[in-house]
Structure prediction request, 646 residues.
Amino acid sequence: MKILRTRSDQSGNVLLLALVGTAVIGIMLGAYLTLVKSQNQGVARSQVWNSTIPLIEAGMEEALTHMNAKGATNMLSEPGWSKVGDKYVLQRSVGDGYYNVCVYNYFPGAGTNQTPIVESRAFITPPVLVASADSPLLPVIATIEIPHRPDGMMGRGVRATCGMHALFAKGLVANGKIDMSGNNLSTDSFDSLDPTHSNTNNPGGYDVSTAKSNGDVATNDTVTNSVSIGNATIHGSVATGPHGTVTRGPSGSVSGVVTDDMNVAFDDPTCPFTGGGWSTPAAGSGYTYVLNNNIYRLNTLAISGLSKILVTNGASSIWLPNGFSLSGGAKIDIAPGSSLIIYTGGAASIGGSGVVNSGDAASCLIYGLSTCTSISLSGNAGFTGCIYAPRADFTMSGGGNNTLDFIGATITKTVKMSGHFNVHYDEALRKRGPAHGFVLTSWNEMSPDDVNNVTVPN
Amino acid sequence: MECKITSGKSAEPRRRGFVLSELLVVMGVSTILLVALAAVSMFSGRSFAAIFNYVDLDDANRVAMDQLSRDIRQANRVTAFSTNYLYLEDGDPGLSAIKYDYSPSLRTLTRTKNSVSKTVLSDCDSLKFDVCQRNPVGGSYDVYPVATTIDTAKVIDVSWVCSRTLFGRKENTESVQTARIVIRKQGS
Prediction:
């Protein structure tokens, strides 16, 4: 018997088609997944990259705060800080990461005339989306191949240079209104540390021929007419608080710019020796009191006539809880090479022959404590010094028919100038005057190699 | 013995052509399948291209934002600005100038430093710089007054919208949220 069978050779085509179709779909799926993985990695990297900035800033803030407080004299005064070589280092964990901050080129106790460098690095563990990079599971879709350190963390760092933020950074500064309604008023600047911008015949002194145009006037006030220039000549800029305005008379002028972004907090000063250790000044030959390189306290100081006070043999400070006044021909003589700091808790009236300061403006500092609400300058002599009294109304009414020089800087609650004054801001106060503390003067991101060069605290 | 099969069935199957109705059915089914396949292919291809477009655009935007943020953060100050350009003084020792210029016609944002120009953003439909002062508006949260001069410029708001065309149509328009970047330098 012969049986005939039907041939079915078409079935191979179906298999081939299925294989090809599967391959095409597989390739497309692979491409999709690779693309999605790439996008996922990009987003994850970006999230981590950007989340390092708050950590870096936290490290920077901690370092600056420490340097401006306890670290000013001892960087190791707070737990966590250690010294490695010439660097002060702190490392602190925050959330999924940590910051490492180190300070160098800084010498605690050496004052603020330094330029410390702060390096703040932040390290954060990248998020694990599905599995770790080493996982054998689904390596195509699961791994996060973000460049990172051997410990699996992403790092980023900033190197910042710090500089002193001077307390007296401008000439005439107030929290409130500044009224320059007097006659023959002007402001300008000079630099007692720069021979080219000071008096060659009187080194460190003011000379109109070498004066500069940084006699700035500034207020935090935010109201209309925050600064009334009147007919004054401002060789500098004028700043007010937000929405504050500046008015000027027909002869008034401002050589610089007028801005309205002033926003500075002035803390009340404190007398550092209220707890004791002070002496009562004694009289000297021809002087009512002689301040001789020491700290003093007087309940009230009121001298008149030809009474005089001598400050000699170095730096002296005096605490006057109830204020002081000079009238008639009274004066305070600050001998060359000496300096005086007055902490006044009450009203201060500087009349008579005023304060005779043969040194620079930083040699005579008057701090108005929180209870000092008034300071007046009404004598017939100039004044070389600085006044910091954020709660005091400051009036300058002296001068008579003469125009007097006010050399230095002031920070008070308000300013009213009704006399004849030329205000000469000494730019050297930015270098050798009192300081607010350190601020950032530069901000630069580090290279990846620098970021990985971490100083590990002890 | 000889057997003779008398049935009508032949050992060789008889081949017949399609009748018209069969042909129409086959053509119809085939057409539907082909159209479906073409549609799926086109949709997939378009979708893939769109996703690729988005990923590429997103990457480019991210790189541009990183670069711009870094430059602004470490700048000394703003030297000139408008809504479509921002010039900075870099904090490097040479105080070199960094210029960001947006060209609406070319749809590009260009960065120039030391006379070297580089396009950091392309396919940019709109871009705007808003420059603000350092002080917040009183009684508000996170609102800063607009700076009218470079002397008060401190906070930079930037926003842009990028898009690309795919087969003649705009696809995957990406609107970048406003980034607010603050110049970090405080003292002189």
